[in-house]
Amino acid sequence: MPLNWISKVRVMNWDELYAACNSCRRCPLCETRTNVVVGTGNRSSKILFVGEGPGYNEDIQGLPFVGAAGQLLDKMLAAIDLTREDVYIANIVKCRPPGNRDPLPMEKEACIVYLRQQFKLIRPRIIVCLGRIAAQSIISADFRITKQRGIWYNKKGIDIIATYHPSALLRDETKQKKREAWEDFKQIRDKLKEVTNNEQ
Ligand code: URA
After folding, report:
1. How far is the CA of 191 from the centre of ligand 1 (A)?
2. Whole-model pTM above 0.85?
3. How many CB atoms lie within 10 A of CB 75?
4. Is 124 exposed, middle or buried (0-12, 13-18, 19+ CB in 10 A)?
5. 118, 137, 167: residue to mutate for ligand 1 pocket, most atoms within 8 A of CB
């Protein structure tokens, strides 16, 4: 990515960031998108959830996690006493990959610059990676979701954990993943309590 463009993004405020995302043509996903899905929620939240990229419904509405996976995410948040207004939700890529394929490396590389600026503006204490794609971009390139979910990592003072993507839970016939995700969400609830108490 051109360095002068990255340094421009790194000093953007929210309005500038939204404008830059909405007019972005840094990767081919701009050709097929209906809307750019920048993110939603509480911009001063202590906790940020990161998914993979918009699907059909998100592309139409311009908001993250509004389809079936989003409804499940809402239920999981509710189970730990959180609503969308308490958290911020974003994705690794802000434009829908056609047919919901995995985003390509160059698409992720182009887009993550915006997400990093969102991290900087929000300054969350906790980041939750929803699924492998988010975990591989944020935690480590070789991240194995089945082996490494539920483990806390720390980068630059931010506690980071990965759990299953809600879409994987919707496909989970044995309910094993659902049980594991519930364990992860309980850890997330406890960590959020801990960071909130430490700041009081
Ligand atoms: N899946 C994602 O990863 N993100 C969304 O916004 C919707 C579905």
Report:
1. 24
2. yes
3. 10
4. buried
5. 167
Amino acid at 123: R
Residues lining ligand 1, Cβ inside 6 A: 51-55, 58, 64-65, 69-70, 91
Q: What is the pLDDT of residues 10-43, one digit of tens each?
A: 999 999 999 999 999 999 999 999 999 999 999 9
What structural domains and CATH numbers belong to the chain? 14-199 (3.40.470.10)
Compute, in angstroms, the gap from residue 88 CA to the centroid of ligand 1: 13
Instruction: Report which ligand 1 atom has the smallest distance to the Cα of 134.
Output: 3
Distance 149 CA to ligand 1 centre (A): 18
Tell me the sheet residues that pair with 130.
163
The per-residue pLDDT for 3 is: 81
